[in-house]
Amino acid sequence: xxxxxxxFNQIIRYLTFFLLCCCSYLSLSAQHAIKGTVYQxxxxxxxxxxxxxxxxxxARIKAQTISNEQGNFLINNVPVGFYRxxxxxxxxxxxxxxxxxxARTNTLTFxxxxxxxxxxxxxxxxxxxxPLMAIRKDTVEFSAGDLxxxxxxxxxxxxxxxxxxxxxxxxxxxxxxxxxxELFIDGRSVLQNMNSAKRLMEILKADLADxxxxxxxxxxxxxxxxxxxxxxLNIVVKAEMRKGVRGTxxxxxxxxxxxxxxxxxxxxxKKNTMLGDVLANNNNTLSxxxxxxxxxxxxxxxxxxxxxxxIGTYITMEVNxxxxxxxxxxxxEQDIITNELQQRENIFQDSSxxxxxxxxxxxxxxHTGGNFFLDIQPDxxxxxxxxxxxxxxxxxxxxxxxxxxxGSRMNTxxxxxxxxxxxxxxxxxxxxVDYSHKFGRTGRVLAFHGELNxxxxxxxxxxxxxxxxxxxxxxxxxLNQKVSPKNDITQLALGASYSEPIxxxxxxxxxxxxxxxxxxxxxxxxxxxxxxxxxxxxxxLTYCFNSKVINHLVKPSLTYNKxxxxxxxxxxxxxxxxxxxxxxxxxxxxxxxTYVDHALTAVVKIDPYKTLTINYGGMTAxxxxxxxxxxxNNSNPLYVxxxxxxxxxxxxSSLIVSYFSNGIRGNVFGNxxxxxxxxxxxxxxxxxxxxxxxxTMPINVSGNWDATNTMIFGxxxxxxxxxxxxxNSFDYARSTTKINSLDNxxxxxxxxxxxTTSFTLKKTIEIGVKAIIDYxxxxxxxxxxxxxxxxxxxxxxNVNAWLPLDFNIGTNVNYTNNTEARAHFTLFNGWLGRSFLxxxxxxxxxxxxxxxxxNKSIQAYYGNTYRETLQTTNLSQxxxxxxxxxxxxxxxxxxxxxxxx
Length: 901
Description:
Layout: H1 4-29, E1 32-40, E2 51-55, E3 61-66, E4 72-78, E5 81-88, E6 95-101, E7 107-115, E8 133-136, E9 139-143, H2 155-159, E10 165-167, E11 173-175, E12 178-185, E13 188-191, H3 197-203, E14 209-216, E15 231-237, E16 246-254, E17 259-268, E18 272-281, E19 305-320, E20 323-347, E21 352-379, E22 382-406, E23 412-438, E24 445-469, E25 475-501, E26 506-529, E27 534-537, E28 543-562, E29 565-582, E30 587-607, E31 610-621, E32 631-636, E33 639-642, E34 650-662, E35 667-679, E36 681-688, E37 694-701, E38 704-717, E39 722-739, E40 742-761, E41 765-780, E42 786-803, E43 807-818, E44 823-836, E45 842-849, E46 856-862, E47 866-873, E48 878-887
Parallel strand pairs: 1-7, 12-15, 33-37, 36-39
Antiparallel strand pairs: 1-4, 2-3, 2-5, 5-6, 8-9, 9-14, 10-11, 11-12, 12-13, 14-15, 16-17, 16-48, 17-18, 18-19, 19-20, 20-21, 20-47, 21-22, 22-23, 23-24, 24-25, 25-26, 26-27, 26-28, 28-29, 29-30, 30-31, 31-34, 32-33, 34-35, 35-38, 36-37, 38-39, 39-40, 40-41, 41-42, 42-43, 43-44, 44-45, 45-48, ...
C-alpha cells in the first residue's frame, strides 16, 4: 500500500513537469518582435515617417510599418526565421539589416539605425521588387517609373494605372472615393478649382513625372480636418525635365470640314512653373487630335455638334522665399447645335400625362475668367493666403421646340410650338483672405477668415408660343412675351477661430462665423399687344424683390489626440434671421430660427496603413437666395418655375463611417457608409392642370432621408502591368413632394458597379476595359406604390499598340444600352499612325470616328415628380488626318522597358 504523502508528491512532480512542458512549448511557439529607432546620420535627429519593410528569404514582404514622431517603430508577431530589414526615408540611403529570429528571441532591438543623406534607392542591391507605394504619415507616394506607359502618353494615362485613383468623364479626380480638391506640381498649387484638371492632365506628358503623391487636404493651420476626407494631388517633376521648354503643335483636317488645331507649352523650373494651351476644333472634344483617343471614352463626347475655342494658362512662381503666386487665366468659346428628343411622364394620382418634345437648340457661350492665389509666409508663425476668382460669361440661346401632351388614354391634351430667344450675361467675383498665427506654444493658433462673393446676372428672354388645347374644348392659346430679369447677389462671410492646448493630449478650440446673404432682383415682363403692335407691361410677372439672410454660428470644440486615437467633439449655436421684401406687392416676410449644430468625430489609426473614421454631426443648411425669388423661370409657358419667400433653413443630421487601407504591395481598399436625415428639407410642390401645364415651387418638407455605401477596391500587379479598380455604390433615398396639394413619397434605389482595368505589356501594347452597370429603381406613392426600374449598361474596350517601324495602331469600342429608353448603340473608332524623326517627335495619324454610324446620347432620369428619357443625335461619322509635333523632348530612352531591381 502506497503512502498518501508519496502519492501526493508524485502528483506535484507530474504537474510541475507538465507546466514546464507547456511553458517550453509556448516559448518555442511564441511570436517575436522587432523594434528600433531611426536617426538621420548628419543631424542626429530622429526621422518620423521612415518606411520599414521586412523581407523573408524569398524576397517576399512579410511586414511593413513606418516610424512614429519619435522615430520609433515596432513589428510584432514575427515568426522564427531569417529576414532582411529595409529602412528608408526620402533623400537618404536605404539601410538593409540582416535579421535572424530564433526561438529564444523575445524582442530584437535596434536602438540606433542611422540613414545617410542624398543616396538614391537604386544603390541598394536587393533582389526583390520595390513596393508600389511609400507611405509617410498622411501621404501616399507612387513612383512613376513603376507605372510604365506607351510613347506619347499623357498624365491621364499614367494616373489611371494607380490603384484607387480614378478620373470620371467630367474630369473629377478621386482617391478611394475621397475627392481630390487641389492639384500641385512640385509642391506648388496649380489648380484650386479642379474643373480644368482633365485638360491639364492631357497637356502634361506622362514622362514628366517622377512621383505622384496623394495626401490629406489641410487647413490654414496645417491640420487635417477630420470627417472631410478631401485629398490633394502633387506631381513631382523629374530633375532633367526642369530645363528648356516642352510642348506640342497639332493640326488635323477631315471630312465634312472637321478640324482640330492645338498648341501647348510647359516650362518647369525650381521656383516657377508655366503651362499654356490653345485649342480650336469642331469635332466634339476638349482634346487635341494628337491625344490618344483611348483615354477618353464612355461619355466623353459632347452632345450635339460643337465648335470650340479654348485658351488657358497656368502659372506658379515664387516671388521670393516668403511669397508664392499662382495665376490661372482662361477663355473659352463654344457654338453648339443640338437636336433633342424628350419623353417625359408627369406623375398624377393613379394616372400620368406624357410630354413629348423635339427641340432644336443653338447655343453660343463665351466664358472669360481667372484665378489668383497668393501665399505669404513672412515667418514660421504667420501665414496669409489670398485667393480671387473673376468670371464673365455671355450666353445666347435659341430653341425651336415642337411638343404634345397626351393623357393616360393616349388622348391629346395639347400640342404646339415654342420659340425662345434667351441671352444672359453673368459676372462673378469671389475673394477669400485667411490669416493664421502660431504662438510659441505648440497647438496655440489664432486664425481669421474673410470671404466675399458677388454675382450679377443680366438676362433677356423673348418667348413665342402657339399652343393648341384639345380638352375639354378645342381652343388656341398663344404667348408672345418679353422678359428681362436682373439679379444681384452678395454673400459675405467673416470668421475667427482660436485653439489652445490644455495638456499633451487635449486641445480646446472655439470658432465664430458670420454669414450674410443679400439678394436684389427685379424682373420686367411685357406681353405683345396686337392693338398697338408693341409690348405692354405685365404687372403680374413684373416685380422688384429683396431678400437678406444673416447667420451667426458659434462652435466650441474639444480634441483628444493620443497616438492612434483622435476624438473631436463640437457643439455650435446657430442663429438665423431672414427678411424678404417684395416691393411690387408690398409684402414683407421675416423669419428667425435657432439651431444647435453638433459634431463628434473619432479617428482610429489601426496601423500606419489602415484608418477608421466615424463622424456624427448635425448642421444647418441655409436657404439658397435664388429659391426666394418670386419667379425663377417662365421661359417655357407649360413649365413655369416660381420661388418661395417663405422657405426656412434645413437641418441635416448624418452619420459617416469610413475605412481606408493602403498596401505597399499595390492593394488598396476604401469603404464609405453614410446615413442622412434632413429636417425641413427643400423639396418641390407641383400644380398641374388638366391640359398638361405645370407650375413648380420650392417648399420645406419633413421625413426625407437617405443611406449610401460606396466601396472601392484597387489592385496593381506589377509584373503583368495590370491595374484593376472596382467600385460599388449603393444608394437608397426617401423623399416627399407635393403634387396638386397631395403628398407623394418617392423611394429611390440606385446600385452602380464599375470596373476599370489597364494592362500594359512591355511598353508595346496597352489594353483598357471599362464596364459600368447602373441600376435605378423608383417608387411613387401617388401611383399605388408602383415600382419602375431600368438598367444602363456601358462597356468600353480600348487597344493601343506600337508596332515595329514606329507604327501605332489602335481602336476603342463603346457600347451603351438603356432599358428605360429601349435603345442601344455602339461607337466604334480606330486610328493608324506613324512616328518620324530620330526622337519620334513627329506623329502622323489617320483617325476614323463612328465607323458604324450609330453615335448618339441616351439619358434616363427618375425625378420626384416625373420620369424622363432624353436622346440626342451627336456628331456622326468622319475621317481625319493629323500631324503632331512635340518639341523639347529629351529623347526616346523611356520607350524601352526597364528591368526591376
